Amino acid sequence: MKYWIISVALLASLLGVALSGANEYLFFAGFVVLQFVVLATAWNILGGYAGYVNFGVPAFVAVGAYTALVLFKSTGAPLVVQILGGAIMAGLLGLLVGLLTLRLRGIFFSIATIAVIFILEAVVMNWRFVGGASGLQLTRPNVPWIFETYTRMLFFVMAVMAFIAVSVARYIQSSHIGRGLRALRDSEEAAECSGVPTLKLKLIACTISGALLGAAGAPMPMYLSFIEPASTFNLSYAVSALAMVIIGGIGHWAGPLIGAILLGSIQQIVTVTISNELNVMVVGILLVLFVVIAPDGVLGLVKKWKQSSK
């Protein structure tokens, strides 16, 4: 109950900020940070709970983005429909990846997910309807609801999506699905011998993770008013998702939330104050520091501090 009260209060506060006279850049940056929360949380469901490292994050993000583009361009679908469509298509992709990689584990599964990126990127680059390799410029529709600008609306929409993603991850962690995924992560053979439906759980994790990644990517065309394959299929999505989970704490629903807010905020500050090109270096430095000093992330440090203070 406490979680839900705090979550609703935070959403109400963010809505108030979106309706206020705050600087517009706050919403551009806030959208990215909240998107990071969704990406990291989605990655953690498969990579943290189940132990299957997914480097194909850009593929799922791109499926969500291009599905939204197709829906908008062909039918003029509203943003909510675009997000639902992106989530469904990316979820189906996750299910397909799970079915095709049932016997692959460890590094072989990760390599297979990277291959998905290049396959889909080649398809998009030769698809004229979505702009092909050169991309496509978009015109945003009129600002709906009570928001002053489209960016403010996207900021609040992404806040709602972050709340949904974290809530789903929290539920999975405490449910029989989460217990089964952790057993699968520790030893898939032992889990199968104990009667854990590893195949079913892996497919569930792939599908849910993929759907959330696709939902996070769906608003991107409207956020940028432009879409093209090079940036949409950027491998930095995979690196950032992995880094945020490691920094916050892998295998727990709160870890990606902490890591995304911390890393995303630092990156936005660096972009404004120093240079956008230093973002990758910031990710690398923080990742190395946490792997060496705090391999269990911020949550691990908090746990050790609590134990030492007793």
Task: Report on this structure.
This protein is mainly α and 310 residues long. The protein has one domain (2-234). It is 76% helix and 1% strand. The chain is built from 15 helices and two strands. The protein has a two-stranded antiparallel sheet with strand order 1-2. The protein is globular.
Which key features would you list for this structure?
single chain, 310 residues, mainly alpha, two-stranded antiparallel ribbon
Given as residue ranges, the uncertain stretches (5+ residues, pLDDT < 50) are none
SS summary, helix count: 15
Structural class computed from helices and strand pairing = mainly alpha
Order of helical and strand elements: HHHHHEHHHHHEHHHHH
Largest beta sheet, briefly? Answer: 2 strands, antiparallel
Number of E strands = 2
> Span between N and C termini?
27 Å
Mean pLDDT, all residues: 89
What is the overall silhouette?
globular
Present the secondary structure layout:
Elements: H1 2-18, H2 24-49, H3 57-75, H4 79-100, H5 107-125, E1 136-137, H6 150-174, H7 176-186, H8 188-193, H9 198-217, H10 220-224, E2 226-227, H11 229-232, H12 236-248, H13 254-273, H14 279-293, H15 297-309
Helix pairs in contact: 1-6, 2-6, 2-9, 2-12, 2-13, 3-4, 3-5, 3-9, 4-9, 6-7, 7-9, 12-13, 12-14, 13-14
